[in-house]
From TrEMBL:
SUPFAM superfamilies: Carbon-nitrogen hydrolase. Keywords: Hydrolase. The keyword Secreted does not apply. PROSITE patterns: CN_HYDROLASE. This is D-N-alpha-carbamilase. Residues 5-307 form the CN hydrolase domain. One of its GO terms (molecular function) is hydrolase activity, acting on carbon-nitrogen (but not peptide) bonds, in linear amides.
């Protein structure tokens, strides 16, 4: 029996320092509506979807910095973001959104949440573990900074897979008669950007039977100070290489963990100077890309996937090994 799920990555074009939050939310709502028109049941938005990728800047003023953050648990009701969650509920489409979270103790986190439209609540939260970059800006005034270690704590929620209810009709529930694996609600996991390059997050999810890994990202196309001494490359060559590595890890880890993956970029030239790669894609458990973004602007990447395809690699092959 197929377990079909219609999924989408909502790639965002650049958000600038000067882009009003309402404008970003309204673009996200348009993308959500387009995905819903295609039949999507769940839509992934990128890392720090609600703002530009502000860790590029050294921000001294606490008030200025706070403007980039939201309080995690209140996202569906905060005036800044409520319209997006209301639309998701109206359309009956789940969403996963990346944003900068300020917790009640004042700590900052690079966070992704999963909102179930039918339940009308956030059912899972993930905080980025692998924070790239530095605490202090580079000495080179022309370097592209990534001050994530300055603004965020390393994620403290682990890699907890979760089930997404009400997406597959007739899915077996806990305690039901059906005892076979792979008949229940979809099992999902979240990663944020740099996390996708390290095996342990994927493996933790894989060992929990994950069927779909969602990963939002902001990946700079050219940042020699940040990425260290590789062979010299032009910005164009570096961007091709960055897209190659992005797809390499999405494809290889989907294959190794026999799961689908969805990745959503914030792409294009942010603030007129920080070029982010595109390459949002949906990958199957055999490691093949089944859908991918064509450009670097706002774009929906959509696929109908059959979670049954995860079974072969999870059961047959390992059972014989
Ligand atoms: N936002 C990120 O985590 N970006 C990193 C860059 C700095 C390498 C990435 O892994 O794409």
């Amino acid at each position: 029996m197929p377990r079909t799920l219609k999924v989408a990555a909502a790639q965002l074009g650049p958000n600038h320092l000067t882009t009003p939050r309402e404008e970003i939310i309204s673009r996200m709502i348009k993308l959500l509506q387009s995905a819903s028109n295609l039949g999507a049941q769940t839509v992934l938005f990128p890392e720090t979807a609600l703002t530009n990728f502000f860790p590029r800047y050294l921000i001294a003023s606490q008030t200025e910095l706070d403007a980039f953050f939201e309080h995690g648990d209140s996202l569906p009701t905060s005036p800044n973001t409520k319209p997006l969650f209301d639309e998701a509920q109206k359309l009956g489409v789940d969403i996963s959104v990346g944003f900068a979270e300020r917790d009640k103790d004042g700590k900052g986190w690079n966070t992704q949440i999963y909102y179930s439209a039918k339940k009308g609540e956030v059912i899972a939260k993930y905080r980025k573990v692998h924070l790239p970059g530095t605490k202090e800006p580079f000495e080179n005034p022309d370097a592209i900074n990534q001050l994530e270690k300055r603004y965020f704590e390393p994620g403290n929620l682990g890699f907890k897979a979760f089930r997404t209810p009400d997406l597959i009709p007739g899915a077996a529930k806990k305690g039901s008669e059906v005892k076979e694996h792979g008949k229940g609600d979809p099992i999902m996991g979240m990663l944020i950007c740099n996390d996708r390059r390290w095996a342990e997050g994927w493996r933790c999810y894989g060992l929990q039977g994950v069927e779909v890994v969602m990963c939002g990202y902001n990946t700079t196309g050219y940042a020699p100070d940040l990425w260290g001494a590789r062979k010299p490359m032009t910005p164009e060559e570096a961007e091709v290489d960055a897209v190659f590595h992005h797809k390499l890890v999405m494809q290889a880890n989907s294959y190794m963990n026999s799961c689908f993956s969805i990745s959503a970029a914030k792409a294009g030239l942010e603030d007129g100077k920080f070029d982010l790669i595109g390459g949002s894609c949906i990958t199957d458990p055999e490691g093949h890309i089944v859908a991918e973004a064509k450009g670097k602007g706002d774009e929906i990447v959509f696929a109908e996937i059959d979670l049954e395809e995860c079974r072969q690699g999870k059961e047959m092959v390992s059972a014989q090994a």
